[in-house]
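Before going further, learn to read the protein records used in this course. A complete example follows; check for yourself that the lines match position by position.
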Amino acid sequence: MDPEVSVLLHCTAWGGLLEPQVQVELSARFNRQTDPALESHIEEVWTERVTMEPWLFNGAKFRLHSFSLASPQPSCPPTPQPPCMNGGGDRDGRQCSIQKEEEGQHETKGNADSGRAQVLRHQRDQIDGVIGERQHNDKDLSSYKQREGNLRDSQTSTPGCRDQHPAVGSSAAEAQPFPQRDVGGKGEGPTPILTLRLGLTCYRDFLGTNWSQRARKLRQRAEVEYGDPLALLAQPLGVGGVLCTADRQVVLIRRSQQVAEARGLLDIPGGHPEPKAVFEGLDEEDRIRVEMLQWREEAVVRELFSSVCAEIRDEVNVPLCSLGEPILMGIALNHTSAGRPSAEFYISCSLTSTEVRELYWQGGIEAQESTEIVFLSQTEVLRLDQSTPLWSELCPSAKGAVLLYQLVLPDRENKSN
């Protein structure tokens, strides 16, 4: 197992999760802990960094504190579960703390393969007890698609866009390789399966904690003072998209030398969901408080799913109307930045790799963030590991997304056979 990255959560049992199957809980309790000395250090790091790289700017981000999976349905016999990895929490709700999940994976470097297998077995046990095989509910997906369409009112006028479903040159199954299972009863809306517990943080705090040279000491101190090694870290939740074209090519981009992290490495399109996007017309991000977001939880989930599409549009220059619905594959952790979490999505595209390449070289809104576009076949991506030369060219975020893709896609295809 690569020590730079690990899988915190995978959604293999469902073939990935759609927006209605995810909910959020927002609270100031999920913000990081702090004190005057730490704030002074963060300000010092930020001032020095901006002096060297004046193009950097601060912005509010969501902080991932923990997550939980729904309890088993009454019709599903409960599966014996291991205790939560944080030693506490509600066993019925199966709350899983990122702190102990992440630490349990990060500290198994000496026995990496068995450590990864243990974590994945733990999560598969959780998932298997939550949901059984069920029929697809067209009504739920139709409602979702209608709501998603309302968010993309600008894409209908985009020149050159084709019908989203199915992808051109492919079957419906190819355009949507992770079929969803119904998670609600007949006539009912979809039941949320995954709950993300979110606070607020910012990019400045990330550079002064997760990305700081003091990150290890901050973890040690937080463990002693709060019983939580991540309590003092920013832990901003990122998003990434495994974009698959109509001819079954996965899109990678090479990061430029002007970005703050992983310069020159291959990555998937991605970024962060933005709290300010939940508030129309709010320019001053420092005015955003968790209490303001608690009444807009559905909008926060919508931003989580739609932001990854916006990142693909801005970085690859692919129009939104060519993208399928984002499907959450899981959450990966980047250990080069002290275990920063990223939600990784699968997104189908109705354009071919040739068409995507042409659009990329025309330049998008964030064209300066990358210098090259690379395509790998699905087969090549499924075979990527530490023994392949290309693996060393992937940044940790891309590695995490590839690991999740390798978990979810083969499981889906085995179930469809």
Notes: Residues 26 and 295 are 9 Å apart (CA to CA). The radius of gyration is 20 Å. The chain has one domain: 5-408. Residues 5-408 form a domain with the Nucleoside Triphosphate Pyrophosphohydrolase fold (CATH 3.90.79.10).
